[in-house]
Amino acid sequence: MDTGEQPILRMQHISKRFPGVQALDAVNFEVNAGEVHALIGENGAGKSTLIKVLNGVYAADEGRIILRGDEVRFRNPREALDDGIATINQELMLIPQLSVAENILLGRLPHKRLWLVDRESMEDYAHEALSKLGSNLNPALPVEAISVAEQQITEIARALSWQAEIIVMDEPMSALAEREIDNLLDNIDRLRAQGKAIILITHKLNETFRVADRITVLRDGQHIATVSTEETSPDEVVNMMVGRSVDSVFIKEESTIGEPVLGVRHLSREGRFEDVSFELRRGEVLGFAGLIGSGRTDVIRAIFGADPVDSGEIWIRGKRITSPSIGKMIRSGLGLVPEDRKQQGLVLGMTVSDNVNLVVLNRLSQWGIRQLASEREVAGKLVSDLSIKTPSLGTEAITLSGGNQQKVVIGKWLATEPQILVLDEPTRGIDIGAKAEVHALIQRLAQQGVAILLVSSELIEVMSVSDRILVMHEGRITGEFAYGEATEEKIMTSATGQLNAV
After folding, report:
1. pTM to 2 decimals?
2. Which of the chain's termini has less CB crowding within 10 Å, N or C?
3. Strand 420-424 to strand 334-337: parallel, antiparallel, or no bridges (unpaired)?
4. Looking at the structure, do residues 258 and 124 belong to the same domain, yes or no?
5. Per DSSP, what are the bridge partners of residue 479?
6. For residue 348, is it within any domain?
């Protein structure tokens, strides 16, 4: 990174207010050519709002954007893209049915005579863009046939095809496995070597310290600090993000573990999982660890009645559940917070209150008529109990930060007063402060006697909050560890099929 040159981008005193919320308050941010500058903060800190001001989604109430020495103001993302600023969103913006090459050159497909698409030129151009990222991905493949990591490479190649000088990456690692994250970091290094300015928004601090030159921390819409990565530490960054020491983030509290409330016996589904058996007890937090594709989510979806099984039994409080269905499992006291909150957990266009009450509408209604006062009472209590940051109960869920959206999903299931709560990747894509709140909630629920089944790809999370840990590999349980006995090495050895510790 050459710090002697004028920054390619400066955002000066940027302020943005929404009804009831000061999203940004005189925030300063800059990035140099050939620099990776990480933008860090809790959900709701203002990171996404700052980027949306940069690329023209929002107009700033106050402040200036200086690009290559000239003041600019974009009215939409296309204008920003035309001026060399490309944003790669957390939810990849690709068309699955089109090829990799068609997605890279979408809106600019080369033509031959009679306006026929020149596919040879298109694929040659796409191949060149991909090769700059060290990828040999076939440009002719449909996007729906490639992995998430390859889709991300396609997004980056599309940005390069626009001759982007500034590339914003919003949570690019949230859906990637460890090996794929390493490849992404290699590509970020390649882009830096090519003189690109990279703005990296992420909650993964270990990876941030591997690749970023500088880190800017936002909290509650304000600029807290900009520091050189070499001159700070993850603990200091966490302290700046949340205003407290990292030691307070992961705390294991004891709860009284009682009788079995969920029994899974020899559960199998061909091609997904085989002969899965375990018990979950009242007040227990049972962690499920394993690599992506190990079958963890398949098992819990089957338990919840969302997917069929070929054989096996599910018992709840001593009663066998025959022909499990989602409705039957909910009535049996089981709730599921799914891994994809936006696709499976929320109706984004509905209000906070409507989302929280979605599963309990029948209980709250009288003669089929909604009781809005009762709904507001339920939602208001859960918003307060979970510290959900929202301007009002009538605010649409889509406008909330990721961490607050996750709390709404959790609140929806807490409204059912579950005896068994399954949490699938409950802290994916949320900041470390919100993670601490989710962990504290898990412990509180366990102390109240709720049985918790926790699926997480973060080993530290599983090890910190679980009373017992099961490990899966290729659809089978290959390891079981009590709290305090598990180590990252033991879990990963079991998760890769090298050790059977059951």
Report:
1. 0.61
2. C
3. parallel
4. no
5. 471
6. no
